[in-house]
Amino acid sequence: MLPRHHYAGASELFANGGFEEGTAGWSTNAGQLDSVTSPLHGGSQAGRFSGSGQPSTQFAYQLTNVQPASTYELSGWVAAPPSGVNRVFLRVSWFDVSGSIVLSSDSPWLAQPDGAFHPLATGAMVSPIAARQARASILIQADSAFTVHLDDFAFSGPTFVPPPPTPPPAPTTPPQITPMPTPLPPGTTPGPLPTPTRTPGRVPTPKATSPAAGSTEPDSFPQLINGGFEELRIDGTPFAWHKQGGEISASTEQRTEGARGLALVSETASTKWAYETVSAQPGGYYEGSVQALAGPGAESAFLRLSWYASADGGGQAIASIDSLDSVQSTAQAFRRLTTGPVQAPAGANSVKLRLMLRAASAEPAAAYFDNAQFGTTQPGPGESVRLAGSSLISGGEDASLAEVAAPDGLVPGAATPSTIANVKPSRPGADAPTASGGQGQDNWAILLAIGVSLAAIALVGGHEFWQRKYARKGRVRDL
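RE: above sequence
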């Protein structure tokens, strides 16, 4: 069984997590959820979730009231087929008292979609200060018809305790008014004045000030959060996401799911990006993806993973690798981009998921992103894996990117992927190395050395040939 952590004061918040009572307590945003007697992980029934792949993200979920600033965990068992399903993972979305989403936390992706049951878990999570309700979901991302099986799900944490009713304020006794003394006749000596009587009233109690939700934001996160860009800071920018150049904001018009997406706007020719820093394991296998739209003025939009030796994305990037493809402005639609399976460098302890905008010119440009995902993966048999290697930036990396990247540590000469995708070709006449990556001079040196060696061999051979010829002529004359 999947180990379940029951923290102090924790309770099981799911109703019918094992589907023993059919699908009671469960809901879906699309697709169909029913109960079956096979295959099973435990008990006598399990859940079967089927869909057509439209919309591309579908989920089964339960809603429950929660306590703020408390520890929770979502876990369960999932059996997914080896084909037809792109991603399976768990998500807990936190909502405030008005029903607005505050934060979303995801589990790693299902690493072994082989038809057998495997565990998924978010790990321990602390609910935001503003959280009053949680939606615990199993998300399926698929481009075609799918069927997955679910069993033995649990959502553990402290149960909701309604706040005590506020007592009405106690009545305040009005202060007594002491009458003015009667004036004495002239020539009379006044006696001591009476001491005024004070009736104590209520002392006003200062109002308690609650800390603002999301007032603290770490430099990096154990896993990617707010990939749907639903939670916002006070300034309206998506929580956990930062920018390098340009401006970022939430977009309610350009999105693929939920209420918001991310907009990245540029007003110069340099390359811009939005990013989030996530912890990584050296040598681990990861994959990133995002829905991207290259808007007006943009040449392209793509995804980049930049790896760092530090735990918080500080210092200089040791390697980078781009998505397998980019989306051009001519597409005029969102397109899913993915890096495919990537092995992290041996020294990587964090990674920045960068949502890249390459502007076509210095005119205003924009790119839009939604449903960003990043997590561990397990390459299938025969599936190719790219290595975030250690080759240097060549002339193919445009100068504008190197210029913008300098403050963030990715400078010319820093480590980049062994294969850089989505690279703007160098302009004719620009001062840049040749397409061979600066190795043309080495090739000429090698050819020159080979030529000199062959010439030396020819000279030695020719000299020996003439010596033998003259020696034979001398013997003939002697005869």
